[in-house]
Amino acid sequence: MRGSPAGATRGSEARGLRQRPWWPWTRRVLVTAFLTLVAALLWQQAQSIEWTKVARVLRGYPLSTLAFAALFAAASHLLYTTFDLLGRRWTGHALPVATVMRVTFVSYAFNLNLGSLVGGVGFRFRLYGRLGLSEDEIARVLGLSMATNWLGYGVLAGALFALGVVSPPEEWRLSGLALRALGGATLALALGYVALCAFSNRRTFALRGYRFTLPVPRLALLQLAVSVVNWMAIGAVIWVLLQDEAAYAQVLGVLLVAAVAGVIAHVPAGLGVLEVVFITLLAQVGEPRVLGALLAYRAIYYLAPLAIALGLYAALEAKARRGP
Question: pTM, whole model, 2 decimals?
Fold first, then answer.
C-alpha cells in the first residue's frame, strides 16, 4: 500500500507529546498571549484609520473592476478544486470528478473563513468519509493537496524574495538580505521536491513517524503548475482592486509574505494579519486605498464563495445520506 504524502502515521509525535505534558498548556498560553497582542495592536491601528476615506474607496469601484476581480477569484477557486483531482488520480479512488470538485470547493471556502483545521481538514474528512473514502485515502488526498499548495508558494515566494521584489521596512528584524536568502532556500526546497520526484530511486521516506511517498514526475509537475497559477490568480484579485497603485509583482510578493504570516499566527481567515502586512509593505499606496482593496477582496474571495459553499455543503450531506 502506498504511503500518504502528508504522512499516514503519527505515532512518534504522539509519544513525544506524552513525554512533554507541559507543552499543550504552554502552547495555549503562548498562542493566547500572541493573539491578545495582535488584537491590541489592531485596535490601536484601527483608531488611526480614516474610515470615511476607506468607505469612499469602496463606493468608487467601477463595476468593471469588481467584475475582473471576481473573474480572477473564480479562476482561483476553480484551480484549487483540481488539487484534489490530482489526489483522486494519485489514490485511484472512484468518486466522480464533479463530486470531488464540489468537496474541494466547500472545504476551501470554509478553510479560508474558519481556518485549515476546520475547513481544509475537518470538512474533507467528514464529506469524503460520508461519501465512502477510507481514512487512509482521505489523508493521502489531503496531504497531496497541501503539498501542491505550498509547492507553488515555494517557487513563487522563493523567486520574488530572492529577486528583492519585497523590501522589508527598517523596523522589521528581517533584513532585505535575510529575506533574499530565505527566498533562495524556499525556491531550492520546492525545486528539490520536483527533482526528487523525477530522479530518486527511493520512493518512500519516513520522518518522525510520518511516511512520505513521492508522486511520479508528471504528477509533481502538474502540482507545481496548478499551484503557481492559483497563487498568481489570487494576487491578481488584489492587484486589480488596487487599480494600478502598485506593480503586480510587488502585490503578489506582499500576498506571499502575508500568507505565511497568517499561517504562523493561526488566526482564522488571517483576520488583521493580512491587513497589517499589506499596509506596512505597501505604505506608498496609502491606508485607505489598501484597506478598501482588502475589504473588497475579502468580500469577493472569502465571503461570496462561502455563501455558495453553504448550499453545496447541504447538497453533499443530502447526497451522502442517500448513499451510492
Answer: 0.80
